[in-house]
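Changelog-adjacent note: as of this version, every example in the card shows the full chain rather than a window. The one below runs 95 residues end to end.
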Amino acid sequence: HAVVGLTKSVAWNHAPDGIRCNAICPGATDTNITGGLGVDYFDAGGFARALPVMGLCERISGPQAQANAALFLVSDMAYFVNGAIVPVDAGWSAG
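Full-length structure tokens:
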């Protein structure tokens, strides 16, 4: 809740100054850090518990998905978006 609370607090307190604050909550992202990780890397018990939810979204994004969300939020198209928590996870958090 730290990031969500901070985002909403900054958005609320600085809205009169024309300052917006939003947060992006990325889902699984294929990067050079995660690219070489196999199933054996993860704790078997934790992986088994997460698997039913992970099965709902069988794809991961590239970094461009998060970059696109950030570009939208800093653009003039998002001028009325403030205090939003934007999941960029292909619906994983909906499960």
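Structural remarks: Helices lie at 2-14, 44-54, 63-74.
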